Amino acid sequence: MLKEFPFDRDIKQAFLFVLKNDKNPGLRIAAINCLDSLSPAGQTADPDILEVLKERMKSDANSYIRIRAKATLQEAHKQ
To answer: Rounded to whole angstroms, how far apart are CA atoms 6 and 22?
Structure first.
């Protein structure tokens, strides 16, 4: 799994791609969880991540992803 590799731009882009495009909610959940847990402190405020989280918060079919995206966005705005 990608979470075993050091978090870098390519890993971030892979997780964002899955979160935005994959039809499988389990994979999207894994991607948002990994982004949240692997992002070094403060990197959840990265503009690419924030943009995808805002989109997922509003439009994802899975309620867990919507809730998790909202919580992560709120936490990023506190920093």
So the answer is: 23
Distance (Å, rounded) from C-alpha 79 to C-alpha 56? Answer: 21
For the segment 19-46, what is each residue's pLDDT rounded down to a tens digit?
999 999 999 999 999 888 766 555 557 8
Among all chains, which residue has been given the structure tokens 């809730």? 67
Closest C-alpha to 33, from 9, 78, 62: 62
Is there a contact between 35 and 15 (Cβ–Cβ < 8 Å)?
yes
Q: How far apart are CA 6 and CA 29, in angstroms?
A: 20
pTM of the model: 0.84
As a whole number of angstroms, the distance between CA 1 and CA 62 comes to 22
